[in-house]
Write a structure and sequence with these properties.
172 residues, 58% helix, homodimer, mainly alpha, globular, Four Helix Bundle (Hemerythrin (Met), subunit A), two-stranded antiparallel sheet
């Protein structure tokens, strides 16, 4: 087991769950007769990121964490999405990028020193970066996206948040 | 590395961060002259758990995941907290319990079959349980607690959510 197992599968799972929450948002908008795009500027407080920015940040936190831990180059996204369709494309491109990695790409890199742009010349060891920042950062944005939808009445609950679990039945 | 490294340290970090968010809630209540306990019944939507229940569930998700993965017995909490002081005690008791575990307690248990009460006679393998349920479940409740406070104006941001990261400076 290496850092791949803790990161990429969770990013993929939750980004695919996010796609389901957006499906629910569209269903709800149709039921209630409002424009689903109006949800994109919703936020929980005036100085918080709105839904569009939470989704962009969830995508970037998955993309950048994957690239940094694998010491790979990440594709650039310019945060220009203004429609739900464009945000879905952004999620799809993020998934396509991170799905290209495997545990081998992360092998032996848990002790790498990561000089990140926001560390002012300092570095964080890859293992610390994942456990002290990257996972919490990803869950922060994706759960705030969920919370904004939930606050606005989209029919979501914990089961939709978490998605599928591999439950098995005992042999007879 | 085993499942301990992915779970208990994150639970401890985030529960301690939650204590800081509650400090900020108290500061904000004092500044604005409202009773901080009034936040405990706040929620993002009428059919969502209020703050008290999110905190109880965050504590339980950390406690139960730790106990299940270590095949240990968890202390019982009856969800009777009605004040911020009682919720702080609950968080403290949860921390005291999970801080008692080490990686050794999780050794060789990643393949254990966990027959959980909500699986209707089925089981989930410990490794799947952590990656497909327990971590997302914990972040779900703790981030919704954060979101409820944030929505109500408590001065929180991503830095407060994530907490300390071990940044190091290169040798001269």
């Amino acid at each position: 087991m290496n850092l791949f197992d803790e990161s990429v599968p969770a990013f993929i799972r939750m980004l695919k769950n996010l796609e389901r929450w957006l499906d629910e948002a569209e269903t709800y908008a149709t039921e209630r007769g409002f424009d689903v795009e109006d949800l994109l500027t919703a936020r929980l407080h005036i100085d918080q990121y709105p839904l569009t920015r939470q989704i962009q940040a969830a995508c970037d936190s998955a993309k950048l964490a994957t690239a940094r831990l694998a010491e790979a180059k990440a594709p650039v996204h310019d945060d220009v999405e203004t429609t739900l369709a464009e945000l879905r494309t952004r999620i799809g491109e993020t998934l396509a990028f991170i799905e290209g990695f495997s545990a081998e790409d992360f092998e032996g890199k848990a002790d790498a020193k990561l000089y990140l742009p926001f560390l002012q010349g300092g570095y964080v060891v890859a293992n610390d970066y994942l456990h002290q920042f990257a996972l919490a950062n990803f869950y922060f944005h994706i759960t705030n996206a969920y919370a904004i939808l939930r606050h606005n009445g989209v029919k979501l609950g914990k089961r939709t948040f978490i998605g599928h679990m591999n439950v098995q039945m005992p042999e007879a």
